[in-house]
Amino acid sequence: MTYIGRLWNGAPPVSERRVLLIVGGGTAGWMTAAALAKALPKTTAVTLVESEQIGTVGVGEATIPPINTFNQILGLDEAAFMRATKASFKLAIEFVDWMGPGHRYLHPFGGFGLDIEAVKFHQVWLRAHHEGWAPPIDAFNLSAQAAHLNRFAPPSKDPGQVLSSLKYAFHFDAGLYAKFLRDYAEPRGVTRVEGKIASVQQHGETGFVTGVTLEDGRVLEADLFVDCSGFRGLLIEQTLKAGYDDWSHWLPNDRAVAMPCVTGGDGLTPYTRATADAAGWRWRIPLQHRTGNGYVYSSRDISDEDAVARLRATLDGEPLA
Fold first, then answer.
1. At what angle do helices 174-185 and 26-39 cross, to 10 degrees?
2. Rounded to an integer, what distance in angstroms lies between the CA atom of residue 20 and that of residue 22?
3. Whether 280 contacts 287, CB under 8 Å
4. What is the phi/psi pair of residue 116, to 5°?
5. Active site residue 241
6. Rounded mean pLDDT of 156-168?
7. Does residue 20 contact residue 8 with C-beta atoms inside 8 Å?
8. How confident is the model at residue 58 (pLDDT cuts 50, 70, 90)?
9. What is the structure's pLDDT at 9?
């Protein structure tokens, strides 16, 4: 998400209503709309324009613990959120085959052990490890131990309890999360406009974006714009030509294919799995109603057809799409 547009010079008079326009929906657009609906005064009108003709990535979404902070700021009910988005709990990421075939390790959420006065826990563990008597470090992380056991429990609110150290996030259906946030944002004043943007208007001298024109001729003007148009970069790239830094030398993976399937194999695990593969890596994200899978790969090292075939061959269950 990128904020662009004309600058707001001080607080507007109560009688003057500012307009903020979000370009694009999906998870990014509706997260922005929900946050602004919660945070901004009623003197700001928030509008979101999106088109049902333009699809979103919409794969299963694996998050990290700050998603809890975001949901709590909005005041969302966790149980209602999980029901609506078909969510499951996430305690860690399991990495498979990255150090070599058959090797596995967990990257869990939360801290490891307890510091001993001025000595950090990891320093104590590292010395014990070098001396050959330390257990694996994830033995000292509650989220890791729960993940190994395929278990979850809500953290304790008592900081004196070990259970208070458990940190978690979620897997959820990104499309359903966007819908859930839309249902949150619209009753709080966000206006949704259906339509495809045909052109973008800019100020003749400053070049700032001043408005967008839809295919049916409607013009939407605003004081501030948020570009949530995803890969299109409709405002920040196509219009403002912000440019990109080429990192392909370090990050050769340039494509991805997604393929949900019927839940099978390990079932509803409380962790995301990332598996190294010949031309990239594969993800596995378990949701209540399906398992999300994908293959992130380098098109220089494998064809699209072979990438699809490779992903299909590694699914836990029957593919759904």
1. 30
2. 7
3. no
4. -110, 95
5. no
6. 93
7. no
8. low
9. 43
One-letter amino acid for residue 36 of the chain: L
Q: Which of 86, 90, 179, 241 is catalytic?
A: 90
Indicate the pTM of the whole model: 0.89
Closest by CA to 46, choosing from 34, 60, 58, 61, is 34
- Would you say 85 and 76 are in contact if contact means Cβ atoms under 8 Å apart? no
Structure tokens at 115: 């510091």
Q: At residue 269, what is the residue type?
A: T
Q: How far apart are CA 88 and CA 260, in angstroms?
A: 15
Q: How confident is the model at residue 53 (pLDDT cuts 50, 70, 90)?
A: confident
The helix/strand/coil state of 81 is helix
The token duo for 267 is: 């079932």
3-state helix, strand, coil in the chain (%, to 5): 30, 30, 45
Tell me the DSSP string of 89-125. EE-EEEEESSSSTT-EEEEESS--S--BTTB-HHHHH
* Residue range 268-319, pLDDT digits in tens: 999 999 999 999 999 999 999 999 999 999 999 999 999 999 999 999 999 9
